[in-house]
Amino acid sequence: MNIIKAVKNMLAKPYGYMTNLGYQRYSVNYNTFLKDAYDNPFFYACIKEIVDDFNSVDIKIYRQLGDKVEESKGHIVQKWLDDPNPQLTRSQFNEYFITWLIIGGGLLLNKTKGSMTKYLNIYSPDSFEIKKDTGMNISGYKIGSTVIQGNEMKYYRCVTSVNPCDGIAGYGTEFRSRIKSAAKPGDLTNFAFNHMNSQLSNSGKRVGILSYKKFLNPQAKEEAKRSFESMGSGTNGAGRIAMLNGENFDFKSLDLTPQELDWLNSITLMREIICSTLGVPVQLISSDGSTYNNISEMKKKIYQDTIVPLLKEYCEQMTAFLKDELGENHYIWYDLSSIKELQEDNTDSAQKTVELLNGIATKNEIRAILTEKYGFNLPKMTGEWYDKTYVSSSEIPLESAGEVIDPEEGSGIDGEE
C-alpha cells in the first residue's frame, strides 16, 4: 500500500454520523501507512528534526495574577508532565504526541484517576473508536472492548488536526494527516530509491532483450535464458531477460538509467517539497549548501514558523485536558529562554524594552521586567539610586535635575555599597 492510498483510506470514517450512531474507527492498517512514511528518509528526517527541537523547549506551569504572570513552581501537574507514566519519559510522550498528530491527524489522551498520583497515557489514531451523537458531539470512546461513556469521559480528550474539509469547524467526521499534501512526492521518492536499489543489487545490469542469430528450439532457448539470468538477474526482476529469435546476436536495453530518468534532480526536488510541507528548512536535513551561518538562521526559522505553533497547540490542548487539576488561573505554556537561536531576538527585544521604560520605570523595575519577560537572570541592584526613575537622555533622577550627585553614593549590587 503506497502513501497516497494509505492516507486516503486511513482517514477516520464518520463517527456515529447521524444515521449510524455506532463506534467507528480507521478502515485501513495504520501500521502499514506508518511504515511507508517512515521508510522515506525525508519524512523521517523532518519529523525527527521537529521532535528534537520541540523537546529542547521547557514546558512550565504559570499563574495569571491580574496583569502579572508568574511561574507556578512545584505544581503537581508539572510533575506529571515531566514524568507522565512508568513507560514514557517527558520527551517520549511528546514525541508520540507530535508524530501521531502529524502523521495520523489525531490521538487520544488519557489521565488516570487520583489527585496526587496520576499517569498520563496517549493512544494512537487507529487504537480507539469514537461515537458521536446526532449533534455530532463525542458521546463515547471504545478502546478494545472497553467502552468509555458518561462521567468517565472527563478522563479522556481527543486531539485532532484542523481539517478544512469540515462542514462546521470542530465537528468534522474524519482526521486529516498533515503529510497528506506530501503523499505524492513521498511515493515518487520511495519509487526512485527502490528502482535504484534494485539496479545496485543487480550490479547495475540492465533490463533488455537478448536475441540470437540462429533459431533456437524452445528447450535451448529456455536453457540459454536461465543461464543468462543467473549471471545478472537482480531483486524484484531487475536485469530479467526476454529471449527472442533473431538473425544476429544482439541485446537491446528496455530501461533507463537513474541519470536518464533524472532521478537525482527529482529526488532533490521531492525532498524540498516534503520539507516545505512539514515546515522544515531543507538545510537542516541536508548538507547541500549548508553553512554555519545559514544553519543558525534556519534553526531560528523552524522555531518561529513550525515549533512555536506546535508548542501553542500542545500547551492549549494539555491545559484544556488538565484544567481541573491545574486550578483557577493556572495554565501550561512554553519557555523559549533556553533556546540559543532565539536569544539574539530576546536581546534585541530586551534592548527596546529598556529604551521604552527609561524615564518611566526605576532600574530595579526594569530589571524585574527583563527577568520575568525574557528569562535573564539579573541580580537585584541595591542602593537608593536604583529605585529611582531616571531621565533616559542624561540618566539622572527627575527630582535631582540640577543637583550635584556623589558618584560613589548608592553604587553596588547584591548588597555591596
Summarize this structure briefly.
The chain has 417 residues and is of the alpha+beta class. It contains twelve helices and 14 strands.
Strands across the major sheet, in which order? Answer: 2-1-12
Number of helices: 12
- Label the overall shape: flat
Low-confidence sequence ranges? 7-21
Distance between the termini: 75 Å
**Fraction in beta strands:** 15-25%
- Summed over residues and divided by their number, the pLDDT gives a mean of 75
Helix content: 25-40%
Structural class: alpha+beta
Q: How do the SSEs run, as a string of H and E? A: HHHEEHHEEEEEEHEHEEHHHEHHEE
- Count the E strands: 14
Mind explaining what this structure looks like?
With 417 residues, the protein is α+β, with helices and mostly antiparallel strands. 40% of the residues lie in helices and 15% in strands. A 3-stranded antiparallel β-sheet has the order 2-1-12. It is flat. The chain starts with a helix and ends in a 20-residue tail after the last strand.
